[in-house]
Amino acid sequence: MLDDVTSYLKSDTTPGQAGNFLWAFIYILLIFLGLSVAVIAMNWLERKILAHMQVRLGPMRVGPHGLLQPIADAIKLLIKEDIMPSESDPFVFWTAPLIVVLTAFTVFIVVPFGPTHAVTDMNIGVLFMLGVSSLSVLGVVMAGWASNSHYPLMGALRSSAQMVSYEIAMGLAVISAVLMTSLNQSGTGTLSMIGIVQAQEAQATWFVFKFFPLGLIAFFVFAVAMVAETNRAPFDLPEAESELTAGFHTEYSGFRWSLFFLAEYSAMIAVSSIAVTLWLGGWLHPFPHWLSGETWDLVFSLFPGLTFVFLAGLTFYSVARMPKHPYFRVQTMGLAGFGAVLGLIGLALFAPPVRDRVQDIYWFAAKVAGFMYLYIWYRGTFPRYRFDQLMTVGWKILLPIGLGVLIVTAILGVVL
Amino acid sequence: MQPVATTFFFYFLAAVTVLSGVLVITRRNPVHSALALILALLGQAGLYLMLYAPFVAGVQIILYAGGIMVLFLFVIMLVSIEKSQKEEQFNNMWIVGLLAALALGALFIGVYVKGRDLFAGREVALPEQSNTQQIAILLYGNYMFAFEIASLLLLVAIIGAVVMAKKRI
Known about the structure:
Largest interface: A-B, 32 and 31 residues
Number of helices of chain B: 7
Order of helices and strands of chain A: HHHHHHHHHHHHHHHH
CATH superfamily of the largest domain in chain B: NADH-ubiquinone/plastoquinone oxidoreductase chain 6, subunit NuoJ
Structural class of chain B: mainly alpha
CATH architecture of the largest domain in chain B: Up-down Bundle
Number of strands of chain B: 0
Shape of chain A: globular
Number of domains of chain B: 2
Strand content of chain A: under 5%
Oligomer: heterodimer
Number of helices of chain A: 16
CATH topology of the largest domain in chain B: Four Helix Bundle (Hemerythrin (Met), subunit A)
Strand content of chain B: under 5%
Distance between the termini of chain B: 56 Å
Helix content of chain B: over 70%
CATH class of the largest domain in chain B: Mainly Alpha
């Protein structure tokens, strides 16, 4: 039993390929846990960052700086009355949010957090991710229809038309990145997520900078399409309560609505990790070829610990700035405790065996976190598109650009 | 890695496919039928995966379950459900259908019984790691012409649909 656990740590394959059930299960649990924490953190960060962009304070009441606000929100959602519209289709009404959540979580099986840190490495990795996330359209359509009301039905038609049309632009951008994997190799490319990152390592460049500016354009097409695909601002028609009576989830409330919410955020993380894997070098640290060698490896492996220690420092700075009134004593102590936990995690990450294993995950997560910040930034800056404008952008701008990039990439790949 | 619990997964996926296939034709509500069909297609994708054809499985999920069935659902949801529920579900052709199904079943059983003689000594190599690459080499190498003709056919179909749907272009 113990042999099973330790022997895997020395191997250099993913648990799925090694056929190690125990570690596959551990990875699945860790991903599920990490994803839930990330969704909670995103919920808080989004409200806080949006508030600061609009010169407000944001949530400040529940816990120090509103840190416990997501938990309060979750409790509110769970104990809220769960209304099912009369004459609705109960079975379809129930399964719709489940399908959306299942698809949003299933894609994480193939996400490569590091050369060995993935549940499994599939021969069809990218295809699997795109395919399974395209199934979430079904959930949207079902939710709109099962509500037995006109507004959700129209909203579902709108959202699914949007998701289906942006999937095409997304697919074209992905193909041009997959084409790039076949260069400087035996001639055949790969669809496996780990293989794509290894191809970038072998070609000594991230695919954003490959055939400059071709890779950058493909990345841009994907970056726009992925925002539309996840129904986020500026393409967030389901959120438009005032002008369109929201979208497919108008009739949903309480727990079932929170499932849609959970699925939205984990889908955002999923598409961001596709973008990171295909164009931004996955788990590779910045400039993997210029800054290689033992010293640089050591420097880059210290980053995870330094980040946590830095966050702990910021927290202690906030502790010092808390009002001295006795009313705030519990909050100050809580914040100091949070800072201490962050600092301890940071110190643990400095230990050599931990830091070697964790740094791949750290760089991957840092890149994904950059995308998450962009999502919030878009929401704070761009006005919402009208539906016809949205279709124009998808079909008349992104699709031709994607096709053009694909053709030019193919030609360059043959010529060079 | 070596496959595990193959028999269990085969019977599980086969049961899912067959049962949801039965549901497709017995449900009165067309939306429920379409959802059952999606489940059947997903089960089929799982069976492809068991046959060491991951690429076909992925394409099955993207095209059928994710693409075509969404269009199906689109159309069905805009049709009045009350009207369709009053219509008769089976017509008088069921005897012919039953005979055809029985003939097909007999054929399957025949192949199962005599299969060893028909396909003697054919142990399929399992190129699990390079399945997609093999398909690509075949499609864009050996069968390039047929592939391009098929895509031209699809293009004609798309243009035809647009011409028929739009009076002024």
